[in-house]
Amino acid sequence: MKRISDSLSNGEAALIITPVNRRYLTKFHSSLGYLLITRNESILFVDGRYYEAACYYAHCSEVVPLKRLNEQLPEYLNKFNISKLLLEDEIIFRDYKNLKSALSIEVEPSSNLSGLIMECKSVKSLDEIEKIEKAQRIAEKAFDEVLNIIKPGISERHLALELDYNIRKFGGDDISFETIVVSGENSSLPHGVPGEREVKPGDFITFDFGAVKDGYHSDMTRTIALEYATDEMQKVYYCVLSAQIAALNIIKEGLPCGEVDKAARDVIELQGFGEYFVHSTGHGVGLKIHEEPRLVKDNTALLKSGNVVTVEPGIYIPSKFGARIEDMVVVTKEGSINLTKTAKDLIII
Question: pTM of the prediction?
Answer without folding.
Answer: 0.94
